[in-house]
Design a protein that fits this description.
The chain contains 18 helices and 11 strands. Helix 1 crosses helix 15 and helix 2 runs antiparallel to helix 14. It is globular, with a radius of gyration of 22 Å.
Length: about 475
């Protein structure tokens, strides 16, 4: 996941963008210090597979990461690629004398589940993608390190601050299980709709703020032989961006909390849930989906959208980087919050925003001191900027990206959208807390988009998933306040 597209006019308004970004706390102004965030905690690090990995702790090396030791790093090679991790590893080797074994893969479960089972996991893992090992499952199996020790360590850039105090507020929340931070969601992500500025200019379309205006553009597109809405049909996670955002914006934060907190009326009996799913189903019923989109993978659907075969697509802000090679130079990728249904409790500018891409340290990592130090440095200004250069996305570090880094048009538009949203952001936590329930909701959405079920049945299936989860005594330990 990541973000950036080829575009000629990158320098247009850059000074304004940097000022706005700095005000938002997403990009550093030149004189600003910057901090470092990471996660990890516990253990003395002596459980290496051969030599002792514990070195001498110091002010600059609080965990005693040992020069000459080795680090085993596995990174999900998806929309953000893995060049950023290679750049981190090179710097880590140069500064600390710790070399890394690097694996970039999309087969996270296939490659890592046997290693977790055998008690020989890597030291640092970006546990993401369609084949992610679910965080709640790893946590329940006792496989994850509590990251509080790293979060409470001094920041690389300003040792007078703890790492946790240098992060954009709320970004640790998705990595919490039963009150403990066990995953560090590193990338600042926004979710919503995307469109081509070039296509919209050519067609004379204004980015819609209301659902009626959105449908009108989809209908106009259809008349001209263009799909209205594309989605990544084989992965219903993506259409749930639209459905769940519609529910949140219609019903407000209470509708989000009702679902996260497993309310008996989270779906059935919720006017917001009914309105949200019926709105998306209207796109299906009126034939406004891009033809064939239900049967496509994420990259297939996104590539057709890049070929101007659809007006809109749903995604998170890794879209731009993931589609770099498929995006025409003058495409002018833009982000759009979900348009509003009438009587919505949230404003149009409200967006789902927060952190994505969970990094973990396995409890049985062979080089715990090295892993903790690696994660502490991930949220130094230097490594945050390295990430932005390679993946063209923002991290959860406040003021985390040096202003010399050029942001591409899609990423620029997410920075501007985040500023416009201000405090009007929301984030569902049930996917991290209850992966089985999340899968059931995705499956229901898959059936809905294929017209095999109607909205009423979708609501029933989603409520059944909530009710089933609520029966698990462990669910009482999570609460979205």
């Amino acid at each position: 996941m990541g973000s950036t597209a080829h575009h000629g006019g990158e320098d247009v308004g850059r000074r304004d963008l940097i000022k706005r970004s700095a005000a938002l706390g997403l990009v550093a102004t030149p004189a600003m210090g910057l901090l470092s965030a990471c996660a990890s905690g516990g253990g003395d690090g002596d459980n290496s597979d051969g030599g002792n990995t514990k070195g001498k702790a110091s002010k600059d090396n609080p965990f005693g990461a040992k020069s000459g030791s080795k680090l085993d790093v596995v990174v999900f090679k998806g929309g953000y690629g893995d060049d950023y991790a290679k750049a981190w590893e090179a710097d880590f080797s140069k500064k600390l004398g710790i070399t890394s074994t690097h694996t970039g893969t999309q087969e996270i479960t296939g490659k890592l589940q046997p290693r977790f089972n055998a008690g020989n996991p890597p030291d640092v893992v970006d546990d993401s993608g369609a084949q992610q090992i679910k965080i709640d499952v790893l946590y329940k199996n006792g496989s994850l390190l509590d990251l509080s020790e790293v979060l409470d360590a001094p920041s690389v850039d300003d040792p007078s601050k703890k790492v946790r105090d240098t992060l954009i507020p709320g970004t640790l929340d998705p990595g919490v299980q039963e009150g403990k931070v066990v995953a560090l969601n590193y990338i600042y992500t926004v979710w919503g709709l995307w469109y081509s500025g070039k296509l919209f200019k050519e067609k004379g379309w204004t980015p819609p703020k209301t659902w009626d205006d959105f449908l009108a553009i989809c209908q106009d597109a259809k008349k001209q032989g263009i799909g209205g809405l594309a989605h990544q049909g084989k992965y219903p996670y993506y259409i749930n961006v639209a459905i769940m955002d519609m529910i949140a914006k219609k019903g407000g934060i209470d509708a989000v909390k009702a679902i996260d907190n497993l309310d008996p009326k989270a779906f059935v009996g919720s006017a917001a849930a009914q309105a949200g799913v019926e709105a998306i189903y209207e796109v299906v019923e009126k034939g406004l989906l891009m033809p064939g989109t239900n049967g496509l993978t994420h990259t297939e659907s996104q590539t057709r959208w890049n070929q101007y075969k659809a007006a809109f697509i749903t995604c998170g802000s890794w879209l731009e980087n993931e589609q770099l090679k498929q995006t025409p130079t003058d495409f002018d990728m833009k982000f759009l919050p979900m348009p509003l249904l009438s009587g919505s409790k949230m404003p149009f500018e409200a967006i789902r925003a927060g952190s994505g891409e969970p990094f973990i340290i396995p409890a049985k990592a062979a080089n715990l001191p090295g892993a903790k130090e690696f994660m502490r440095r991930m949220l130094s200004k230097e490594w945050s900027t390295l990430f932005a250069k390679e993946a063209n996305s923002l991290t959860i570090l406040q003021d985390g990206v040096d202003p010399s880094v050029k942001l591409r048009p899609g990423t620029q538009s997410t920075v501007e959208a985040s500023k416009a949203a201000g405090s009007n952001t929301f984030r569902y936590l049930y996917p991290e807390w209850y992966s089985e329930m999340d899968t059931a909701i995705q499956n229901a959405s898959n059936e809905l988009m294929a017209k095999r079920i109607q909205p009423k049945e979708w609501l029933k299936r989603c409520q059944a998933a909530v009710d089933k989860q609520a029966k698990d005594p462990a669910s009482k330990k999570n609460r979205h306040e």
